[in-house]
Amino acid sequence: MKFKLEGNIQNSEGTRISIRCPHCGHNGTFESIGTDVYVKDTFSNPKTFGLRRCPNRTCLGHLFFVYNNSMNDIILTYPSDTIPFDKENIPEKVINAFQEAVISHSNNCFVASAIMIRKTLKEICLDRKVDGKNLYLKLQDLGTKILIPKELIEGMQELRLLGNDAAHIESNTFNEVGKFEVEISIEFTKEILKAVYQYEFLLGKLRSLKKIGE
Predict the structure, then answer these.
(1) Quick check: helix, strand or coil at residue 68?
(2) How confident is the model at residue 89, as a pLDDT?
């Protein structure tokens, strides 16, 4: 959920927070809102809690943060930052499934993320109207209907198995469904989305720039 802070803000310098906005994706130094809270715990590990807003005038999204003063590092933000991906020319249902996978990952919900990556594959198959009584056969059929490297088709089957491990206790194809596995899976899924929906679209845009008759 996004809260857009369009009102006036109090003058307060506070801790400088420079990150990518989880709302609009732009990088910037966020504007301080009100007064930060400085806390020193029993282990003498000082932290700063505060509110910021995105400096992008078309966004102005709200951000809560916790900052480790000893390490000069952000511990967490809410909303949390997500892995960026290009949504152009991708069907809405596919985007929604993959977006949920990315958001789950950003909140350290790795099993949920793996399940949603599997759902993303299912949505791709539904969109492309492939045949098959299960996801394995659907992905095999998908490979015959689109121009896509065989490595990506093989990768889809691996993502399917990771999703199986996440959804079913008895499945043990992978050693773990954790941060590292999910991050690789998200990056691989991004490449699949490019191959299925975006390469041909970009080629069409490029060809449209050519002079007529050439």
Answers:
(1) strand
(2) 92
- Total Cβ atoms within 10 A of residue 146: 15
- Distance in angstroms (rounded) separating the CA atoms of residues 124 and 163: 15
φ, ψ dihedrals at 174, nearest 5°: -100, 150
Phi, psi (deg, nearest 5) at residue 165? -60, -40
What integer pLDDT is reported at residue 70 of this predicted model?
83
According to DSSP, residue 197 is labeled: I
Question: What are 7-38's pLDDT values in tens digits?
Answer: 555 455 678 889 999 888 889 999 888 888 88
CB within 8 A of 102, min separation 6: which ones? 82, 83, 85, 113, 186
Q: Average pLDDT for residues 129-141, to the nearest whole number?
A: 91
Is the Cβ–Cβ distance between 14 and 53 less than 8 Å? no
Phi/psi at 18 (5° precision): -115, 110
